[in-house]
Amino acid sequence: MKTNIIIAFLLSIGLVSLYSCKKQIDGCTDPAADNYNSNATDDDGSCVFTPDIGESFGGGIVFYKDASNEHGLIAAPSDQSDGIQWYNGSYLRTNATPTLPFTGLGNTNQIIAVQGDGNYAAKLCADLVLNGFDDWYLPAKSELVELYNERKNVGGFSDNFYWASTENDNDIGAWRDSLAWYVNFTDSLNGYKNCYYKNFNARVRAIRAF
User: Fold this and answer.
1) Whose CA, among 76, 132, 158, 161, lies 20 to 30 Å from 82?
2) What is the pTM of this model?
3) CA–CA separation, 128 and 111 (whole Å)
4) Going edge to edge, which strands form the sheet with 60-65?
5) Where are the domains positioned within the chain?
6) d(CA 163, CA 117)
7) Cβ pair 122, 113 in contact under 8 A
8) d(CA 160, CA 202)
């Protein structure tokens, strides 16, 4: 009889130890978060909530998110100019040719490094301080196309030409140095994009990344 009692006692201790030593998994336990971990047992405060396209965030309105759903692009709520030149008075080659999302900041910095101080599209965006943020820039061609695609979610656009920070890289000689990309935001033209002379006055909408 004593033996049975001892065995039962030892088994009960073993079960208590088993449950008390169950492995704890730290992580995000909120199903609404971008990085929700269904295996997590303890919330470690790491939950990430990124806004949806069209929502106000980071000083403007979100218009693009990458595949990770954690990074994206924000447009200023209104235009920074209804007509300003791309260049600073001379057809200088800037080599600001990247087109993809998140490359517009590098383009903007490159343009300013070559063209210096003045009143032109890239400098206007770089100098902008809006809603507490000072890292705005002139969008690269693909960023501007994405902005056109979400223009109704962002709002405030004119049926007109908007400058991209991407310089023409298709031609040679003087033509190559004289042209930069734009996107026409007129609805009936479906986001028509092309190159035009840098002395043309086009509209500007600054963006920033998060």
Assistant:
1) 132
2) 0.81
3) 16
4) 56-57, 60-65, 72-75, 207-209
5) 2-43, 56-209
6) 18
7) no
8) 8
